[in-house]
């Protein structure tokens, strides 16, 4: 599983950080989300899928 | 269940349809949408679409369109629960064995006479297009209503250097966030050239044919070439009158599983509701509350889809993190974010502030209990409040 974020879409809503704090993070001043772990293990698939689904601008893509 | 009907083609209806297909539902799915457009996202209407940085196509809701029969440009006018039928405004009858009520809201109409042209509301794509088209380079824009739409539109138009005055009977803008934030919002908007007339009510919108001005209660007349009426919204629930569904203050009453209640308070098994037309229990609310946030429509729709196919006893309430109301608003370089049920707050406390940046963090309490927080440009801090405020919804 490989996670990418379309930084042209990301508006730092932060829903992904709320759902998957081990995968995504946002600093106070960040304009786009940071990916802490772009290739997490299968145990993270459920929360990553949920994070992608929650994103208000559909900026998160999961491959594999 | 083989015949699911969705009334409403907005965010809630669309997300519900996507989630329902994800659950594996393979029966018929019909979506009744009163607009002619495929479902689109409303937050850009007062910002990117109005500014012209997004096209209408870029406002389309993302993701794969669910496999469904779409009925565009038709409104539901009646629900016949005895015969399991939704009646449309062209007389068509659509039968269901599962129903999602997601008919949303419309802009509140002005209670008074209006000139024939130059006065607008802003709730859908057509509204934004018409409002935009009426604004010339020398426009003098008066916005009646200093809520989120009024303030976002003011910010969008000031970035273009247009002449903008905002009028509200309230003493400060966006009153749900309290007086401290209201005062700072005034400062930010005034620094960008917006004029406010707060604590003032409108006596008349003047103009013979085309609007020429807005007359205030103290006798001042604001010259206007365009007026935006942004005084809130009303639920599209008239079609449910007489159906036996519990409706309070115009919104459909649900339990914590998004199941719709009848007038006797019992669950109507095949009917769910989601989004701005629905109310449901919240830990800090009294009874069922209507939460008009984008995230609430998303979360209710996903939950309603999962629960519709289950027996009433098997249905589950919202996961705690998703039960925290959240919203955002972008005005100039300020990203406003909120977590919690702000209407419950009786006291607001400033936690931190940097007027230069600008940044701000404010907590809302009811008595000693934290009920919400609002942040300006503090994207990490607000996430911790979202976590702190997560509690199971009451059943």
CATH architecture of chain A: 2-Layer Sandwich
Strand content of chain A: 15-25%
* Helical segment count of chain B: 7
- Helix content percent band of chain B: 10-25%
Overall tally of domains of chain B = 3
CA distance, first residue to last residue of chain A: 5 Å
How can the largest sheet of chain B be summarized? 6 strands, mixed
H-E order of chain A: EHEEHE
What's the number of extended β-strand segments of chain B?
28
Q: Number of folding domains of chain A?
A: 1
Could you name the CATH topology of the largest domain in chain B? FAD/NAD(P)-binding domain
What structural category arises from helix and sheet content of chain A? alpha+beta
CATH superfamily (homologous) name of the largest domain in chain B: FAD/NAD(P)-binding domain
The count of strands of chain A amounts to 4
Q: What separation lies between the terminal Cα atoms of chain B? A: 25 Å
Q: Can you list the strand order of the major beta sheet of chain A? A: 1-4
Spell out the blueprint of helices and strands.
The complex is a heterodimer of chains A (64) and B (395).
Chain A: E1 2-5, H1 15-19, E2 24-25, E3 34-35, H2 45-54, E4 60-63
Antiparallel strand pairs in A: 1-4, 2-3
Chain B: E1 3-7, H1 11-22, E2 28-33, H2 48-51, E3 69-72, E4 76-80, E5 85-88, E6 93-95, E7 98-101, E8 105-107, E9 119-120, H3 125-133, E10 140-144, H4 148-159, E11 163-168, H5 178-191, E12 195-198, E13 202-206, E14 213-216, E15 221-223, E16 226-229, E17 233-235, E18 247-248, E19 251-253, E20 259-261, E21 267-273, E22 278-281, E23 288-289, H6 294-308, E24 326-331, E25 334-340, E26 347-354, E27 359-366, E28 369-376, H7 379-388
Parallel strand pairs in B: 1-2, 1-7, 2-3, 7-21, 9-16, 10-11, 10-16, 11-12, 19-22
Antiparallel strand pairs in B: 4-5, 5-6, 8-17, 13-14, 14-15, 18-19, 20-21, 22-23, 24-25, 25-28, 26-27, 27-28
Helix pairs in contact in B: 1-6
């Amino acid at each position: 599983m490989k996670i990418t974020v379309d930084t042209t879409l990301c508006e730092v809503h932060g829903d992904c950080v709320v759902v998957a704090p081990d995968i995504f993070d946002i600093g106070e001043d960040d304009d786009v989300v940071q990916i802490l772990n772009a290739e997490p293990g299968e145990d993270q698939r459920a929360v990553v899928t949920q994070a992608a689904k929650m994103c208000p601008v559909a900026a998160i893509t999961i491959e594999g | 269940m083989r015949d699911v009907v969705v009334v409403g083609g907005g965010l809630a209806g669309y997300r519900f349809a996507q989630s329902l297909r994800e659950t594996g539902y393979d029966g018929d799915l019909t979506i009744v949408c009163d607009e002619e457009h495929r479902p689109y996202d409303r937050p850009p209407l007062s910002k990117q679409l109005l500014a012209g940085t997004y096209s209408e196509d870029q406002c389309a809701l993302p993701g794969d369109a669910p496999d469904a029969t779409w009925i565009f440009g038709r409104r539901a006018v009646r629900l016949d629960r005895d015969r399991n039928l939704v009646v449309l405004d062209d007389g068509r009858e659509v039968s269901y064995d599962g129903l999602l009520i997601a008919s949303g809201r419309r802009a509140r109409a002005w209670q008074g006479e209006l000139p024939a042209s130059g006065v607008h509301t802003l709730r859908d794509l057509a509204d934004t297009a018409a409002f935009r088209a009426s604004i010339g380079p020398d426009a003098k824009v008066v916005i009646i209503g200093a809520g989120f739409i009024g303030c976002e539109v003011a910010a969008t138009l000031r970035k273009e250097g247009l002449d903008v005055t905002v009028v509200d009977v309230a003493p400060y803008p966006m009153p749900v966030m309290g007086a401290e934030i209201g005062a700072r919002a005034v400062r930010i908007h005034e620094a960008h050239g917006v004029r406010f007339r707060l604590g003032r009510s409108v006596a008349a919108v003047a103009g013979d044919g085309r609007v020429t001005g807005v007359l205030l209660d103290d006798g001042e007349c604001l010259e206007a070439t365009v007026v935006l009426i942004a005084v809130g919204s009303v639920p599209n629930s008239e079609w449910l009158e007489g159906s036996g569904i519990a409706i309070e203050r115009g919104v459909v009453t649900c339990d914590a599983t998004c199941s719709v209640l009848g007038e006797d308070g019992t669950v109507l098994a095949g009917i769910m509701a989601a989004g701005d037309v629905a109310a449901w229990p919240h830990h800090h609310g009294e009874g069922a509350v209507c939460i008009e946030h984008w995230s609430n429509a998303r979360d209710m729709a996903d939950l309603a889809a999962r629960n519709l196919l289950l027996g009433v006893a098997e249905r589950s309430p919202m996961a705690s993190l998703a039960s925290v109301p959240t919203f955002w608003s972008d005005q100039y370089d300020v990203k406003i974010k909120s977590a919690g049920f702000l209407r419950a707050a009786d006291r607001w406390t400033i936690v931190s502030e940097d007027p230069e940046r600008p940044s701000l963090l404010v907590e809302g309490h009811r008595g000693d209990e934290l009920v919400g927080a609002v942040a300006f440009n503090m994207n990490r801090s607000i996430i911790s409040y979202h976590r702190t405020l997560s509690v199971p919804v009451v059943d």
